[in-house]
Amino acid sequence: MATPDKLTEDHWIRRWLARWDMPRNLTVSAGDDCAVLPAPAADHDLVLKTDAIVQDVHFTVSAPPQRIGQKAVNRVLSDFAAMGATPLTLMVSVGLPKKLNPAFVEKCYAGMSRAAARFNVTLAGGETTRSRELWFTVSGIGKIRKGTALLRSTAAAGDFIFVTGALGGAPRTSRHLNFTPRLAEGQWLAAHHLASAMMDLSDGLGKDLPRLAAASRLGFTISAAALPVTRGRTRHAAVNDGEDFELLFTVRPEKLSALTLTWPFKTKFTPIGVMVSGKKNDTDGLTFSGFDHLRTRSTSPLAG
Amino acid sequence: MATPDKLTEDHWIRRWLARWDMPRNLTVSAGDDCAVLPAPAADHDLVLKTDAIVQDVHFTVSAPPQRIGQKAVNRVLSDFAAMGATPLTLMVSVGLPKKLNPAFVEKCYAGMSRAAARFNVTLAGGETTRSRELWFTVSGIGKIRKGTALLRSTAAAGDFIFVTGALGGAPRTSRHLNFTPRLAEGQWLAAHHLASAMMDLSDGLGKDLPRLAAASRLGFTISAAALPVTRGRTRHAAVNDGEDFELLFTVRPEKLSALTLTWPFKTKFTPIGVMVSGKKNDTDGLTFSGFDHLRTRSTSPLAG
User: Fold this and answer.
1) If you ran DSSP here, which 8-state letter would residue B4 be given?
2) pTM of the model
3) What is the ipTM for the molecules in this complex?
4) Domain contains A42
5) How far, CA to CA in Å, does A263 sit from each of A181, A192, A255, B202, B237?
6) Does B130 touch chain A (CB under 8 A)?
7) Is A107 within 8 Å of chain B by CB?
8) Phi, psi of A92, rounded to the nearest 5 degrees
9) Residue ending a domain, choose from A115, A145, A175
10) Which residues from chain B sit within 8 angstroms of residue A132, using beta carbons?
């Protein structure tokens, strides 16, 4: 079998492009110096996000390659969900090690294209380069109606804290590779003005909730018993494992009944606490450590 | 001195952000899940480009770190120049090896911020991850007035072929790190409808001119004697070294005098040949090899 080293860059670009539908929303697509797409309507803002996943940090090559590609795309889509935004198109850079099996890389591509197509997202461009380890950088461009983006910094004291889904256990199972970005839920919360602040849980509640609180210049109180814990996992894991890619959002007390009565999704949503004034956090006895993937590579195989 | 391994991700994000001016054109900037910026006016399209530079492929760590950061940004800005577009903001992902000196990385950041600021480009977001080698992925978002983007595919038979600047020698000197993206020239050509097709020379005329010709379904004839060659270099080097980051553009015969009479820049521009119908290329005896950085890592220290 040919190794990437025997193949040319143009070959890889062709193989890559073959994986993607013709990008309907682009005026000019991959193959020119830049991609061109119509700007969204005047009542919308642009939303931008870049993210990278690296071999042996965010995945291992023992994982199914489709799942690796899927994760690279879905991590970015999860950030769009966290704003309530609509992703439109992606740009992808790929670092290819010399000895990597081309079939493996093509399956990564297939996983990326499938994950993007699921949400009607196109590919605006790509870059391929030689590297020592496999990595993917995905940059997303999307839109949101002006004034509806949900930030981390806009929670108020007294707001209830919610999370979608169940937390914990993702890094030790396939869930860190195979999760569903909560785009529909995030867009719905933003469009209906039902959340006061929002982010996605990539590093774990134990690290991400303190970030949301700090951005809003508030503290928080959570109830350990209220946490939605993945079956078979501990509350400690629910708080600190990370890679949940669920939504963390806050809700004004007067919006609680509207949220509860109109939530149209099968996805579970659970109140876990309340934002409080001052910067003291009450974790109900749980250790909030989160993790930092710049510190933990040597000890943890996977990190957010 | 502290190594990155002793520092946290949040530390690196803070240090990174300290390098950049407050992004005036953003509604929401780094620190939230995504960045938000107003969409350009309705008579504009969005322009998108992503690019990556990797240690020992595009630079070596013996290079001045400011220059490495400068190159990471300027490669992308050169692609905006190639469309005649205006870059607005950048997203940057950085792969940091464990043993890298933090002062080195900070100087890379300084080089990036300086290069961007020179063209009033802001930073919309960044991502930092552990990796085995140093790499930077830069994604740019910009704008262009609808209908003015200069593509590779729109040259016509009989159009004259021009290049800016002088070609050759960049990989063996500091020029591959320290070049000026031809943004002003590209934007001027697009705004005044004086070019019929355009791209930037990243892989060398010997690879890039055949790409432009193929995209336009044409051939080309060049004059070896007409090539603007960097002092002390050969014509073979001018065609095949790559990393020139000059503009390659075509001009309809009836626009030649307008171009020549109104070109307002000190940058030299040189006619080197003509586009021809059919797909035969006449290189006037010069070997057009270009290069492919997926094939040449082991033999060449630097590649486009």
Assistant:
1) G
2) 0.88
3) 0.84
4) yes
5) 17, 10, 12, 52, 65
6) yes
7) no
8) -125, 130
9) A145
10) 132-133
